[in-house]
From TrEMBL:
SMART domains on file: FU, TSP1
Gene that this polypeptide is encoded by: Rspo3
InterPro entries: Furin_repeat, Growth_fac_rcpt_cys_sf, R-spondin, Rspo_Fu-CRD_dom, TSP1_rpt, TSP1_rpt_sf, TSP1_spondin_dom
Region annotated Disordered, chain positions: 174-243
GO BP field: positive regulation of non-canonical Wnt signaling pathway; Wnt signaling pathway
Protein name, UniProt field: R-spondin-3
Alphabetically ordered keywords of this record: Disulfide bond, Glycoprotein, Heparin-binding, Repeat, Secreted, Sensory transduction, Signal, Wnt signaling pathway
Subunit structure: Interacts with the extracellular domain of FZD8 and LRP6. It however does not form a ternary complex with FZD8 and LRP6. Interacts with WNT1. Binds heparin. Interacts with LGR4, LGR5 and LGR6.
GO cellular component: extracellular region
Length: 243
């Protein structure tokens, strides 16, 4: 072993030197050179850092650098994330997306163009005017369609989803409150209910008055009559015995 090489290393190194850092790594770890100023130091890591990809060999596992426009990669020729200003497409980083694709600035990828999709028109609504279906001859009717798929940035935009047209109907009067058969029936029931309530209250009052009157009469019958006091002056008058 070279005098500058040590086997009592730390940080995952199998062999190391004071000047170059790690020279080899323990099993399953990746060897990578990190630049510090003008100097390169070997380090051993469990996974490769951003901008590098790992390759395994029988004698050593190494981290190799991705292409310049690639932020992370699976191999040198297959990028998984691009650097700013580039769009990812099929493992490559492109400044401009191919024909038929569009740049997604949120994911920084080239994606398929999505066009708007809508449902069929709904049936026409009843002829209306100011929210009513009566009291007019000329009104409007509408129909609508729903958006099934919203378009992407370069996709065909959605058409109008509402249509309106004029309509003519046979004029009919709006049913006023209280004029219909149903309303008359409800009024009659309410009147009967109020009347029966008043009748019950009146009958209750009559019964109470009759009960009070009968009680007074019974009280008068049970009380004894006062006897009339005799006239004392009449009893003391002198008897005329001259005749």
């Amino acid at each position: 072993v070279h005098p500058n090489v040590s086997q009592g290393c730390q940080g995952g190194c199998a062999t190391c030197s004071d000047y170059n850092g790690c020279l080899s790594c323990k099993p399953r770890l990746f060897f990578v050179l990190e630049r510090i100023g003008m100097k390169q130091i070997g380090v051993c890591l469990s996974s490769c850092p951003s901008g590098y990809y790992g390759t395994r060999y029988p004698d050593i596992n190494k981290c190799a650098k991705c292409k310049a426009d690639c932020d992370t990669c699976f191999t040198r020729n297959f990028c998984t994330k691009c650097k700013s200003g580039f769009y990812l497409y099929s493992g490559k980083c492109l400044e401009k997306c191919p024909e038929g694709l569009e740049a997604n600035n949120h994911t920084m990828e080239c994606t398929s163009i999505v066009h708007c999709e809508t449902s069929e028109w709904s049936p026409w609504s009843p002829c209306m005017k100011k929210g009513k279906t009566c009291g007019f001859k000329r009104g409007n009717e509408v129909r609508v369609k729903e958006i099934i798929q919203h378009p992407s940035a370069r996709g065909n935009p959605c058409p109008a989803t509402t249509e309106s047209r004029k309509c003519i109907v046979q004029r009919k009067r709006c049913q006023k409150e209280g004029k219909g058969k149903k309303n008359r029936e409800e009024k009659r029931k309410k009147s009967n209910k109020d009347e029966s309530k008043e009748t019950r209250q009146e009958n209750k009052g009559r019964a109470a008055r009759r009960q009070n009157r009968e009680q007074r009469e019974n009280n008068n019958k049970t009380q004894p009559k006062k006897r009339k006091a005799p006239n004392k002056e009449q009893d003391l008058a002198p008897v005329d015995t001259a005749h």
